[in-house]
Amino acid sequence: MVGAALVVAATPGGPAGASWASSASGAATARSATPAPPTGVVAACDLVLPNAVTLTWSASASGWVSGYEVRWGTTSGGPYPSTSGVVGGLTFTTPGLGAGTYYFVVQSAKDAWRSAPTAQVSRTIVTVVLDLVCV
Known about the structure:
The chain is mostly beta strands. Helix content is 0%, strand content 48%. It has no helices and 12 strands. It has strands spanning 6-8, 19-22, 28-31, 39-45, 53-58, 67-73, 82-87, 91-93, 100-110, 113-114, 121-128, 131-134. Strands 6, 7, 9, 10, 11 and 12 form a 6-stranded antiparallel β-sheet that branches. Strands 1-2-3 form a 3-stranded antiparallel β-sheet, with no helix packed on it. A hairpin with a 5-residue loop joins β2 and β3 (28-31).
């Protein structure tokens, strides 16, 4: 078929919204739908583990995401070397943290795809009478 364009609805193993298109000349271009990040990220001191932080957020507008990844570090603006791995819910509690200020971002995830990070939030762990406490 000369002059016809081929559009494939989704790439195998790719997220919904990803597609390939070719022009009449045979040139192919990839179009992808990057997942939207979650919104409304809040970092709160954990009520059970005083040197941990619980993060909560609202779901991504991209209904096809399979989970979320929380990343954190001790430098404002990143890098964020620690990760939760992909979690299925809308909350995550860190393991116990050492004294210092921690900066967190959350990304939507689908397979190896990640959204842009959310706005950074932070919490500080301090030592109070030989105990670590989130403030």
